[in-house]
């Protein structure tokens, strides 16, 4: 038995996905074709890997941190010329890997303890989008994170992460995944999400993107406060009022009520006003 004797390790976030229907839904959501090069984060005992290799993908690069799984994975899939495996931490992966094709898609049941940093590596931040522009990422994440990523303004789940992700990508849900679909079962419900990064030409220009990040940090630090309070001091009150109106924003609103486009408009206006004040372009 390839993985006999291996016990699931909590520190690596190991919860094996055992439900065949969910595995099939993940692969279907990836919409894999013969031209696709797939990156799988954390193949584990290969349940998803097996299905990915049953699809017509051109190549599959798997990155696994647990060295005790690596031998078994190579035994199980090494004969397939499309499969390659890197033993190591995906957070330290420099893409594209030398002599390997640039992945077009990411498909993964991710370790929940690295969700935040992994999204930064795979999708990036405003002003620092990931260098590898994937067509699509299909990720199994904690449901709470999935809800935050695709939350609509006004909902309690809406946060800086929602604004950032929705300006960087189109985000949607495939299905929820109850704990019984895993072994051992996690304590929380999970969700399969699809993230489709917007093309580079649709991203906000660098200065505006950085201005949105600064504004999000400032405003969400006081998410219960009205924008009138959080933004006071950035500009004289009448100028702030005028700028907010032009961005379609009411300064009595709280940060979780503003749509991503409004954040962008507000940050752009503030950026313009502050560079005009400092005599810049
Ligand atoms: C939730 S399990 C998923 C395993 C398998 N894909 C499945 O669906 O059953 C997460 C996997 O990611 C691996 N892992 C954890 N941290 C990692 C990291 N920083 N880099 C690469 N793999 C990691 C774990 O060892 C584990 O195999």
From TrEMBL:
S-adenosyl-L-methionine binds at residues 15, 17, 42, 64, 89, 109. It is found in: Cytoplasm. InterPro entries: KsgA/Erm, rRNA_Ade_diMease-like_C, rRNA_Ade_Mease_Trfase_CS, rRNA_Ade_methylase_Trfase_N, rRNA_adenine_dimethylase, SAM-dependent_MTases_sf. Keywords: Cytoplasm, Methyltransferase, RNA-binding, rRNA processing, S-adenosyl-L-methionine, Transferase. GO terms for molecular function: 16S rRNA (adenine(1518)-N(6)/adenine(1519)-N(6))-dimethyltransferase activity. Pfam families: RrnaAD. Its main location: cytoplasm. Residues 22-199 form the Ribosomal RNA adenine methylase transferase N-terminal domain. Specifically dimethylates two adjacent adenosines (A1518 and A1519) in the loop of a conserved hairpin near the 3'-end of 16S rRNA in the 30S particle. May play a critical role in biogenesis of 30S subunits. This is Ribosomal RNA small subunit methyltransferase A. It comes from Cyanobium gracile UHCC 0281. The lineage of its organism: Bacteria, Bacillati, Cyanobacteriota, Cyanophyceae, Synechococcales.
